[in-house]
């Protein structure tokens, strides 16, 4: 099923590495494989992932459509493009959501369907990158019923633990079976902590009202304390991110108490945490976390998706460069394929291109928190060439028009006010109290018009 395409159009833009201790890894997320594309279960829909009440695409192309989740050929192309660019990464990290956006009333999906789809993606990565460690986090769609991931053992957690973590040790498998989270070594002095942030998701009714679902926060602090004692550095990966959505200023995914606790943990262990990689939004952005004195101490990177669903983005995946001895992130390269062009030209494979390299496009020496704070400050300038680049990259080249007033305020506040109370102060200062909190504000009207009603943005 995942045979390599006849040819692969891809720009190989691997940078020359000046230091022998510089490593590379891939981050790929929000694949949302839709097996029904162009052969849906419901006649006339084009794809099962088409949102309820939405009109089917008029001209669905062979590589997918911006109203649907992608077919297998698009996913296959993306993984082989990664292979063509860098066949020997140190490891691969994933942000979750392999399963398509389907309504919970669908009769075609069960817990078994979810595990099968997760297995399809896992097997593809293992076959294309034999011997390369792959570590993943669960997305809010990687369970049935979506969003309702439990804080107790269940068949999905058990099956996925076996699928993903059989080589990571018994402790990793045990915690995953208990709550969908784990810790595993990446190399000497560096480990990954895969969080199940869906337990903290406001749409998860199963864990509503709990201070620490499945004991994940207590476990996370224990893991970070242990890493500090062992002189290890840590990458944290997760799906649902902390903070406020940069395009919809009323959309916050963590519950408020969980958001505050996560920030407090990052502040306490910033010396241990070398990187945070999250997903879920499908957009390309970042969020800064500061210490009590206001110094930048950690960056939450949100990577764009493979799926182009709801016209948010073009398909994309990311490569990180890091310092092997410290785990410090040095740079990232963002790759993408123009979906509309591929369909219009009837290409025999997607034309994967380097969209941008962070240090080059933004003129920063690296992507450490200090440098990302320099970038964040440059976004505030008026006019700001950096902000224009950032906003274009945010949607991976999908044209959302100009970003002014409410739109600009939401983008800027989101990047450096992860705490919700601090975000509200930032928002009101930029757009003005009552106007800033209108339910029908300019940003919401534009966002909902482009992406559909809020209930589909999950």
TrEMBL record:
Keyword field: Disulfide bond, Glycoprotein, Hydrolase, Metal-binding, Secreted, Signal, Zinc
Binding site for Zn(2+) 2: 97, 140, 239, 280
Listed Pfam families: ASMase_C, Metallophos
Signal peptide: 1-20
Compartment(s): Secreted
Primary location recorded for the protein, binned into one broad class: secreted
Domain Sphingomyelin phosphodiesterase C-terminal: 296-428
Keyword Glycoprotein: yes
One example GO MF annotation: phosphoric diester hydrolase activity
Co-factor(s): Zn(2+)
GO biological process: sphingomyelin catabolic process
Residues the entry annotates as binding Zn(2+) 1: 30, 32, 97, 282
CDD domains found in the cross-reference section: MPP_ASMase
Alphabetical list of Gene3D superfamilies matching this protein: 3.60.21.10
Record domain Calcineurin-like phosphoesterase: where: 24-282
CC terms in the record's Gene Ontology section: extracellular space; membrane
Cofactor note: Binds 2 Zn(2+) per subunit.
PANTHER family per the UniProt record, alphabetical: METALLOPHOS DOMAIN-CONTAINING PROTEIN, SPHINGOMYELIN PHOSPHODIESTERASE
Annotated family: Belongs to the acid sphingomyelinase family.
Name of the featured protein: Sphingomyelinase phosphodiesterase
């Amino acid at each position: 099923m995942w045979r390599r395409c006849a040819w692969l159009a891809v720009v190989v833009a691997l940078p020359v590495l000046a230091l022998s201790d510089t490593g590379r890894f891939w981050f790929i997320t929000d694949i949302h494989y839709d097996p029904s594309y162009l052969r849906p279960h419901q006649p006339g829909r084009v794809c099962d992932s088409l949102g309820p009440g939405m009109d089917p695409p008029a001209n669905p192309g062979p590589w997918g459509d911006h109203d649907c989740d992608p077919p297998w050929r698009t996913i296959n192309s993306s993984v082989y493009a990664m292979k063509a660019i860098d066949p020997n990464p140190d490891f691969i990290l994933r942000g979750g959501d392999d399963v398509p956006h389907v309504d919970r009333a669908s009769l075609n999906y069960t817990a078994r369907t979810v595990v099968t789809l997760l297995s399809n993606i896992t097997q593809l990565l293992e076959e294309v990158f034999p011997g390369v460690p792959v570590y993943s986090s669960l997305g809010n769609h990687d369970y049935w019923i979506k969003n309702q991931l439990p804080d107790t053992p269940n068949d999905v957690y058990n099956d996925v633990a076996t699928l993903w973590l059989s080589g990571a040790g018994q402790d990793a498998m045990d915690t995953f079976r208990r709550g969908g989270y784990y810790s595993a070594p990446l190399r000497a002095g560096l480990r990954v902590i895969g969080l199940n942030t869906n337990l903290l998701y406001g749409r998860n009714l199963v864990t509503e009202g709990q201070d620490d679902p499945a004991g994940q926060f207590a476990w996370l602090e224990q893991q970070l304390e242990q890493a500090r004692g062992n002189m290890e550095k840590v990458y944290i990966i997760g799906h649902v991110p902390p903070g406020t959505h940069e395009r919809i200023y009323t959309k916050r995914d963590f519950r408020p108490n969980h958001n505050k606790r996560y920030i407090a943990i990052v502040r306490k262990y910033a010396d241990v945490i070398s990187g945070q990689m999250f997903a879920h939004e499908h957009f390309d952005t970042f969020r800064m976390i500061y210490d009590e004195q206001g110094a930048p101490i950690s960056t939450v990177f949100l990577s764009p998706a493979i799926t182009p669903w709801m016209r948010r983005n073009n398909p994309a995946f990311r490569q990180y460069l890091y310092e092997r001895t410290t785990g410090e992130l040095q740079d990232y390269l963002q790759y993408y394929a123009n979906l509309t062009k591929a369909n219009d030209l009837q290409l025999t494979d997607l034309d994967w291109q380097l969209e941008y390299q962070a240090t080059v496009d933004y003129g920063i020496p690296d992507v450490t928190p200090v440098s990302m704070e320099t970038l964040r400050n440059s976004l505030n300038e008026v006019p700001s060439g950096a902000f224009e680049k950032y906003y274009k990259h945010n949607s991976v080249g999908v044209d959302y028009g100009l970003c002014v007033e409410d739109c600009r305020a939401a983008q800027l506040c989101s990047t450096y006010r992860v705490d919700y109370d601090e975000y509200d102060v930032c928002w009101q200062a930029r757009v003005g109290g009552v106007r800033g909190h209108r339910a029908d504000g300019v940003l919401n009207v534009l966002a909902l018009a482009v992406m559909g009603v809020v209930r589909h943005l999950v």
